[in-house]
Amino acid sequence: MKRKIFAPEHEEFRATVRSFLAKEVLPYYEQWEKDGIVSRDAWRAAGKQGLLGFAVPEEYGGGGTPDFRYSAVLAEEFTRAGAPGLALGLHNDIIGPYLTGLATEEQKRRWLPGFCDGSLITAIAMTEPGAGSDLQGIRTHAEDRGDHWLLNGSKTFISSGILADLVIVVAKTTPEGGARGLSLLVVERGMDGFERGRNLDKIGQKAQDTAELFFHDVRVPKENLLGDLNGAFGHLMTNLAQERLSIAVSGIAAAEHVLELTTGYVREREAFGRPLAKLQHIRFEIAEMATECAVTRTFLDRCIEDHARGELDAVHASMAKWWATELQKRVADRCLQLHGGYGYMAEYPVARAFTDGRIQTIYGGTTEIMKEIIGRAVLG
Known about the structure:
It contains 10 helices and 10 strands. By secondary structure, it is α+β, with helices and mostly antiparallel strands.
């Protein structure tokens, strides 16, 4: 079915993204995978190309457009290229709204120009060794010391944790407040007591640095409080819909792409003297996956349209996230099976799609959490 959500300017942007990938990403990606981290030069190149800060006002160096469809195009093209390591979506869609929506004028002028030109890479630190989706379990805490906060604790599984110059840390500022006693504190590269642990060895998305972070008596200036004191829970809930939609968009794009690769493979690969595509079982497998992708794409495009109008709610974002990412996982697994032994070889794109995509049902809220949100909304 022909998609109807994009205007000519979005397709022009798609061509720009593909050109950027061909020039600045794909020639270096294999090395980034080996290194476990991307080059900062790629971030600066993305800034020059206008791929950072779509929604940031022009006065701070951004694109000045809140139209999420540009983010959707970016996510689709990076996914199709098999290049999740350069985490522009995390920077733009997940962290960007905190800075544009919560920062003071002074903070915006301090941070947003670098955010947009690629010289300031961002991360958000919520997850801890003993606390994932349960915000009440967060132990990282900050004490009010008059002109600064004294921050102590640790975080883990932090995307862009090694490269990040600016980290939004979720910390307990009112010990007895539970989830309602959390605040967002911005920790900057070079602050005394801020240390990075090892670059974690993941099964997929190896070019995307993921780290442990440690805070030992870090003096965070009062000017680095982001949003309201003890308001982190509300701030996090406000921005989760876009985060989950962004993950869902890459999920359906990944499923479509690996299916496309597999249809080409089964047409060429022969077994028992004829192409695999001539076997009824193979045709049924392809038919089922193609139908699931088509149905999911229709729903996701509707969610993208709704979000571009500011109408997407948390429930439908959760539906999109769990369904698209579980579909991605299922399609990648079935497509790997159809490749046989070749699918198990790391040099084949289907193998990388299988390992890179496995995290999708976990980060941004697990599938189980998504179902809980939906179930509560439906049942009251």
